[in-house]
């Protein structure tokens, strides 16, 4: 503040500033009061919003009979009983479902990274006939609901005896059907200065080498965003997994959790909450360690 | 760099005939490479998207239960919808869900983004905290949590009891069950909020300074600068959330145990498609239902784009 006044000694504001200095307290105090009010409001609102999640986390460790009778978040008794009770679903330990979800998520990530980056490079950088039309198709397919293709896909996959395998869920990722990520990568590549790949062109590199040595390394942020969101969306996806995975050995976490809810007669609220909390752990970890990327990811996709 | 390049590129302008042709030839050469790069996507487009879409359209005119071959029945499936009360209730439930939850969600997102925008300390922490529900909102786990919160002995009734109000079992009551799912959708306002925040960052500070010099009030600044310049982002969020909400499934499935009850009050359209296709194995009718959903989403999206001409302000740059 003082720096600024010194830096602009001749500016018309100096006199005001000087006047301010005699009675700074009331203006400063009201600004401070505003600030405190705003923070209090935001904190209270945030707590109300997050209360259900905090409650879930605490209740998971409460004895079942206390979960519903005591809505507070300071536990009086702690136990791991809930986790023990919910650990087996349809005869399989939960770790199996975690493994399945992980395999599914990782293969989806690999599929999306390869297929979407290849497609995006061609659409963003190469010149070929009907490029605009292809780009339009990408845009439209971002908005296409999966229900339009769901039933024939299911019929074909079940004819091929691929229900209860991961193929129906992973194969589309290797064929760049997540048009959203193609779009995201196109926008990102467009932001890379063309001079860089032109220099490589002049050095005699073909489109494949330009892609591999110039574009791919430079689009790392877009690849990171794709990885994170593919993981979260696959981990959370329920509709596709519910349809294609109907036998316990191939259940993923959401499907197993749903099965646990259906068999609720024997399960208490505490057990359901414990397994729900467990199922969210990977996403919460991502949130804790990669939130900068997450926020940047949505900000940039929102802003093209 | 520019100095060396300009003389090179401008003199060869006269002998033009050879150059554009050569250039086009070079660009044309990429046709092959481009299709190699796009091969996975092109295969996917044809095999995973286009053919199934056409097949689905065909199936919608048939009676098909997977076990026996489809038989052509004309427009029977579509006529059946007209008399199908569950079709109408699922359409109504979905429309109410979209029309109520999306505007509320965007209003929360914009309001919070505005409060967080103006140089607030701890912005990153608030932003993360408010964003967290968006990440979890569509999971089965949160739907399970919602069942417990709005149950008879749930958190909500405990909180109401604190104020001396007797709550009902929100999920068992046909007149309140849908509103719990609307609350769930509004709860995930974090991701549009983050997009709004990024948009607010881009607004030129000079405009606000000029407005302040002219003595414009905060409200006036908001209505005349913030809102117009933010309309592209409002539009983007509106499209995204509308399309997403039409396809909501997990919450309704888990909260109602897959039935859409009580009394079909949470029978989302997608849940009804699911029941017809994968519970009743009435694939023909389910295909017809899916095509109606596709048509409705297409019409609404196209409508949004047409209407956007009247309220979305893209500035004068074409980028």
Itemize the secondary structure elements and their pairings.
The complex is a heterodimer of chains A (304) and B (319).
Chain A: H1 2-7, H2 13-22, H3 24-59, H4 64-67, H5 81-86, E1 88-89, E2 92-93, H6 94-125, H7 131-143, H8 147-159, H9 167-174, H10 179-190, H11 194-202, H12 207-218, H13 220-236, H14 239-244, H15 253-262, H16 269-302
Antiparallel strand pairs in A: 1-2
Chain B: H1 2-9, H2 18-28, H3 30-37, H4 39-59, E1 62-63, E2 71-72, H5 76-83, H6 85-117, H7 123-136, H8 140-149, H9 155-162, H10 177-187, H11 190-202, H12 205-213, H13 218-246, H14 250-255, H15 269-279, H16 283-311
Antiparallel strand pairs in B: 1-2
Helix pairs in contact in B: 3-4, 5-16, 6-10, 6-11, 6-13, 6-15, 7-11, 11-13, 13-16, 15-16
Note down, in words, how this protein is organized.
The complex is a heterodimer of chains A (304) and B (319). By secondary structure, chain A is an all-alpha fold. Chain A folds into 2 domains: 2-84, no CATH class; 87-302, MetI-like fold (Orthogonal Bundle), CATH 1.10.3720.10. In chain A, 75% of the residues lie in helices and 1% in strands. Chain A is built from 16 helices and 2 strands. Chain A has helices spanning 2-7, 13-22, 24-59, 64-67, 81-86, 94-125, 131-143, 147-159, 167-174, 179-190, 194-202, 207-218, 220-236, 239-244, 253-262, 269-302; strands at 88-89, 92-93. In chain A, helix 6 (94-125) packs across helix 10. The radius of gyration of chain A is 27 Å and the shape is flat. Chain A starts with a helix and ends with a helix. In chain A, 38% of the residues are buried. Chain B has 319 residues and is an all-alpha fold. Chain B has a domain at 90-311: MetI-like fold (Orthogonal Bundle), CATH 1.10.3720. Chain B has helices at residues 2-9, 18-28, 30-37, 39-59, 76-83, 85-117, 123-136, 140-149, 155-162, 177-187, 190-202, 205-213, 218-246, 250-255, 269-279, 283-311, and strands at residues 62-63, 71-72. A two-stranded antiparallel ribbon of chain B has the order 1-2. In chain B, helix 5 packs across helix 16, helix 6 packs parallel to helix 10 and helix 11 crosses helix 13 (218-246). Chains A and B meet through helix 3, helix 6, helix 7, helix 8 and helix 9 of A and helix 3, helix 4, helix 7, helix 8 and helix 9 of B.
